[in-house]
Structure to design on (1109 residues):
């Protein structure tokens, strides 16, 4: 796709030396037949008459040229039958310089003929060309191998006119031969490359010809190493520095300048190709920028030449310099004196070049041809050309190449945040103008660039650009589908590659689902199977399944409680999943029934990758298989999946690459766990080297897409209490993946970690709310990571030395202060799902439309427990103390669910205190509380039913515990159940719009709500605890000891990763001893993310800062 837009036309090496050759022979050119010419040439060779030999060829050239132009080659074929090749060989292999020149000049006119060309190659015609400027004696020595080709020039390198003319002739013939692949192995020899280098240095008029040969050789990748070894790259780098590219003053001759610009164009193309294929080149970006500023950044009024071909090749060279550089900003300012006094010069030059592109694009018609305004010579605006000439076609192609490569260059630059904002200030517009390009080669360039840009982690911050690419890729796919017969395999593969990378981003997964990618790829698979070869059809089918698997893994497309209820995809499919909880409809995408049916067919494929993808997706979709307890399911399935992921994860890219290159297969090496500190060091080295791992690199040695699927599946299981303990051995590889994996896999690994800390912990606690109150400012922090409580008023911090657990645990609710758990209240069987996932463009409102759906079924609403520590003062006030209030609803005022009330005559002269409980029928039940000593006391309210499977938890009604002992009399609260509705903690908030907070509970700590009934032993254990060692945060503590905060903070650069890492960090910040550490690691960065353009990143950053504070 990188052929030059126009190389000089096929050179005609014959220029008659004898002006009156035909007259000297006494015959007209057309009267000398092939037989006669061959006979005359034989006599001239036999007699050694070089003058006669030359005159014979001179006399016939006009006649032969006319026939060649008319594509009539019979005369030349006749000459070959008469043995003319022997006469040619006699001439160009002769030791005499004049003979060689005449033989080479004549032989050059037969290069077009396949048979003649093959014979001349056998006769070392190319070697003779390299001897064209030698003296007679030197040629004889070289012919016997005693002198290197290219040496022994006449007069010890004296540049006389004859030698320059002969070198020019040889270079012209070499250029004509460069069009033929079978000649290129001869042309890339050291002798020929050395000869062309000498021509370039010694004959300015032949510079364009010599460099054109290099450009044609560079058009084939197998020649590049020879160009490097032959020092051609160094030669061209030097030439770029010295060539006079500035236009001569008006009125001066332009001939020499045009040759220099043509040579510069060829040099630029060759060097651009070398850079593209990774060969070392010392091309200074500043040189390219300066030349572009001369031709590209001018206004039409300045009457500079169009120089479209040169600008196109310069744009291509600059594009490849930037694309292969780890830092575009550094590359644009590399070795440039302008960075000291005008650092914006490169950007203004590129902006000026883009302005030129837009002007040129406006002067191309719909078919890509030149409009009359552009019908001038490329290097001379004063010379008009025919709009239908080949020169006009070449200029139009150069214009299209210029637009294409400048567009691609700008797309690369937009991935750098610094350049993105500066280009915005330069008001660049219409950056999608190249999307209309129809040329197959240029379209491949753009598709390749889009794939490369999408694979750059930095590009994920440019959502508008990514979405624009997604729209264009789908347009390209639609055009392939619209073709009557077949598809363009190269285009289709690049489109699918780019779509596969695009589908890794969560926002684009939703976009592709809305554009019904399932339907489009289904048509493509069917079309390819009908027309393509089996191996091509299989590779395209695999890419399609990978794309669909990525789209299917988005939480909205996979998790029913997050599914959208309206979408464009409704027009095509009616496969709906019924939300049993809310009665509303929600949709899996792709449509689950039809998709699963296709997967079952693919699961029997002979292709290992297809079989793996299908099997993994079927496991993900068959959630009912995991509804039973872990022991009933059997750990084998999960263990196999986890082990497969640990060996194939992109975390092990370096290890897998080393094994692949050595030819070894050693899973034991892959299962060895590096210390996390070493993994962090590798991540920091990658970051410092600005060389992040991309999916296109990772897929060569690892299985990124399969691993993303596995982690998405594991993140679902990580939400369930019964599976959390299985993940404890997986924490190390998960953190390693966050650190070193490609960003989509790192995002899913962070999601697994965040979900493990949601609804803690490893003992199936079903802890749905945990307000620790472990610091003066940590009032609205839910350590269960399920809720985002909101504080009202100003509760008082605990006095020094008075806190629970010999610490600062405790908050005193005073009048006007309370904590609201959730606007709609908390029910332990229908807990909010807002913190179960974090996609950059989601909001809490979207993520909490429906409650979380328990994998093993919704818990019984009568199964719950409420526990807390409260401080009993020496002289308590006799006002009511509300601990929990229900949710105010229309026509149903809130109930004071759990309250401490003073009862004047409750068995004592001075009265006593009792717990007032309001059941689900709004009946009030009073449970007397024993006289309490001043200090901390523990209370627990446990609700259960006789249907509970565990006998120690099975009973009908409610039990109240104080300091670990059941205080409600036996069966006093039998068949009494409180309403499973918890909204306000620490006070009575009143109804909507009314002032509340008049019944503060006082000083409390460690408030918890469980979605299960606690056993008496568990309650007693809590009441007897004197420290936090037995608290249900073992996973958070383990992650803390492993340095998870530092690992998660590494991946805040890509929005998708940032959202999930912030969620995980916010969960970790529920522990007071981690807050200072987390803030020291990433606090300043998180402060900046509060103003992110991504809604969920704003919210997760704000939540983290709230928890830290």
């Amino acid at each position: 796709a990188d052929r030059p837009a126009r190389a000089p036309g096929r050179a005609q090496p014959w220029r008659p030396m004898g002006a009156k050759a035909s007259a000297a022979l006494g015959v007209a050119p057309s009267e000398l037949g092939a037989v006669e010419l061959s006979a005359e040439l034989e006599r001239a060779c036999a007699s050694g008459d070089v003058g006669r030999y030359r005159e014979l060829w001179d006399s016939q050239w006009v006649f032969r040229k006319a026939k060649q132009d008319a594509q009539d080659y019979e005369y030349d074929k006749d000459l070959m039958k008469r043995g003319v090749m022997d006469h040619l060989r006699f001439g160009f292999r002769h030791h005499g310089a004049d003979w060689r020149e005449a033989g080479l000049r004549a032989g050059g006119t037969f290069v077009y003929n396949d048979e003649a060309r093959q014979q001349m190659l056998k006769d070392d015609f190319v070697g003779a060309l390299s001897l064209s400027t030698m003296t007679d004696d030197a040629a004889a020595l070289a012919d016997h191998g005693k002198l290197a080709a290219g040496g022994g020039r006449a007069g010890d390198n004296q540049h006389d006119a004859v030698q320059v003319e002969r070198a020019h002739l040889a270079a012209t013939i070499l250029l004509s031969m460069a069009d033929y692949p079978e000649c290129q192995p001869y042309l890339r020899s050291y002798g020929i490359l050395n000869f062309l280098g000498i021509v370039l240095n010694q004959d300015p008029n032949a510079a364009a010809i010599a460099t054109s040969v290099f450009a044609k050789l560079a058009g084939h990748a197998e020649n590049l190493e020879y160009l490097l070894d032959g020092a051609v790259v160094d030669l061209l780098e030097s030439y770029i520095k010295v060539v006079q590219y500035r236009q001569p003053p008006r009125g001066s001759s332009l001939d020499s300048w045009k040759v220099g610009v043509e040579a510069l164009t060829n040099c630029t193309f060759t060097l651009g190709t070398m850079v593209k294929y990774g060969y070392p080149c010392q091309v200074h970006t500043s040189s390219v920028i300066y030349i572009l500023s001369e031709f590209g950044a001018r206004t039409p009024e300045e009457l500079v030449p169009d120089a479209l071909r040169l600008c196109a090749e310069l744009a291509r060279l600059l594009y490849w310099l930037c694309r292969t550089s780890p830092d575009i900003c550094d590359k644009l300012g590399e070795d440039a004196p302008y960075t000291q006094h005008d650092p914006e010069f490169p950007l203004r030059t590129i902006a000026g070049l883009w302005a030129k592109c837009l002007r040129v694009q406006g002067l191309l018609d719909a078919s890509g041809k030149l409009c009359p305004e552009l019908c001038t010579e490329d290097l001379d605006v004063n010379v008009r050309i025919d709009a239908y000439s080949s020169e006009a076609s070449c200029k139009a192609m150069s214009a299209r190449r210029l637009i294409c490569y400048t567009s691609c260059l700008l797309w690369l630059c937009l991935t750098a945040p610094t350049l993105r904002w500066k280009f915005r200030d330069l008001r660049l517009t219409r950056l999608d103008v190249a999307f209309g390009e129809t040329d197959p080669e240029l379209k491949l360039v753009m598709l390749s660039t889009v794939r490369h840009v999408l694979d750059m982690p930095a590009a994920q911050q440019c959502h508008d650009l990514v979405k624009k690419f997604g729209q264009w890729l789908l347009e390209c796919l639609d055009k392939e589908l619209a073709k009557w017969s077949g598809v363009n395999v190269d285009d289709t593969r690049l489109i699918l590659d780019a779509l596969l990378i695009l589908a890794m981003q969560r926002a684009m997964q939703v976009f592709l689902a809305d554009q019904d990618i399932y339907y489009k790829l289904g048509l493509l698979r069917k079309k390819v199977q009908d027309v393509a070869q089996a191996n091509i059809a299989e590779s395209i089918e695999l890419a399609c399944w990978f794309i669909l698997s990525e789209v299917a893994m988005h939480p909205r497309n996979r998790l029913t409680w997050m599914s959208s209820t309206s979408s464009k995809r409704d027009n095509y499919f009616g496969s709906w999943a019924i939300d049993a909880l809310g009665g509303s409809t929600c949709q899996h995408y792709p449509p689950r029934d039809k998709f699963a049916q296709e997967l079952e067919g693919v699961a029997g494929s002979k292709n290992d990758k297809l079989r793996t993808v299908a099997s993994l997706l079927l496991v993900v979709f068959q959630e009912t298989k995991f509804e039973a307890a872990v022991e009933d399911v059997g750990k084998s399935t999960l263990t196999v999946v986890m082990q497969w992921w640990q060996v194939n994860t992109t975390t092990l890219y370096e290890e897998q690459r080393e094994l692949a290159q050595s030819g070894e297969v050693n899973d034991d090496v892959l299962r060895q766990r590096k210390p996390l500190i070493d993994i962090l060091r590798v991540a920091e080295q990658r970051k410092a080297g600005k060389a992040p791992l991309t999916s296109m690199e990772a897929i060569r040695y690892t299985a990124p897409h399969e691993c993303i699927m596995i982690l998405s599946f594991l993140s679902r299981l990580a939400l369930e209490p019964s599976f959390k303990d299985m993940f404890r051995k997986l924490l190390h590889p998960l953190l390693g993946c966050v650190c070193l994996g490609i960003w989509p896999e790192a995002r899913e690994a962070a999601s697994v970690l965040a979900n493990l800390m949601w609804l803690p912990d490893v003992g199936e606690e079903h802890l749905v709310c945990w307000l620790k109150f472990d610091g003066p400012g940590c009032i609205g922090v839910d350590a269960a990571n399920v809720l985002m409580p909101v504080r009202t008023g100003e509760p008082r911090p605990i006095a020094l030395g008075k806190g629970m657990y010999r610490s600062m645990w405790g908050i005193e609710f005073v009048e006007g202060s309370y904590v609201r758990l959730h606007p709609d209240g908390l029910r332990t069987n229908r807990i909010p799902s807002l913190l179960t996932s974090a996609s950059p463009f989601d909001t809490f409102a979207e993520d909490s439309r429906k409650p979380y759906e328990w994998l093993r079924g919704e818990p019984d609403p009568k199964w719950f427990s409420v526990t807390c520590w409260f401080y009993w003062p020496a002289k308590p006030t006799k006002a009511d103390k509300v601990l929990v209030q229900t949710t105010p609803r229309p026509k149903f005022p809130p109930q004071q669910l759990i309250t401490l009330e003073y009862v004047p005559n409750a068995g004592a002269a001075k009265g006593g205190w009792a717990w007032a409980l309001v059941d689900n029928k709004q009946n009030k039940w009073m449970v007397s509380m024993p006289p309490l000593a001043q200090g901390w006391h523990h209370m627990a309210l446990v609700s259960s039913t006789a249907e509970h499977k565990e006998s120690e938890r099975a009973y009908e009604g409610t039990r109240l515990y104080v300091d670990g002992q059941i205080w409600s009399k036996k069966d006093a609260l039998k068949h009494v159940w409180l309403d499973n509705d918890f909204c306000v903690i620490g006070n009575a908030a009143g109804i909507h719009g009314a002032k509340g907070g008049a019944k503060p509970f006082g000083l409390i700590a460690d408030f918890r709500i469980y979605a299960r009934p606690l056993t008496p032993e568990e309650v007693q254990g809590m009441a007897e605890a004197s420290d936090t060692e037995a608290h249900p945060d073992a996973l958070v503590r383990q992650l803390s000891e492993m340095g998870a905060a530092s690992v998660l903070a590494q991946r805040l650069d890509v929005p998708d990763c940032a959202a999930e890492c912030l969620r995980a960090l916010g969960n970790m910040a529920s522990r007071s001893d981690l807050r200072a550490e987390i803030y020291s690691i990433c606090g300043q960065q998180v402060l900046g993310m509060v103003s992110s353009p991504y809604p969920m990143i704003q919210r997760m950053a704000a939540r983290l800062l709230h928890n830290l504070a």
Q: What stands out?
A: The radius of gyration is 40 Å. Confidence is low (pLDDT under 50) at residues 6-29, 146-159, 565-586. The longest helix spans residues 390-413.
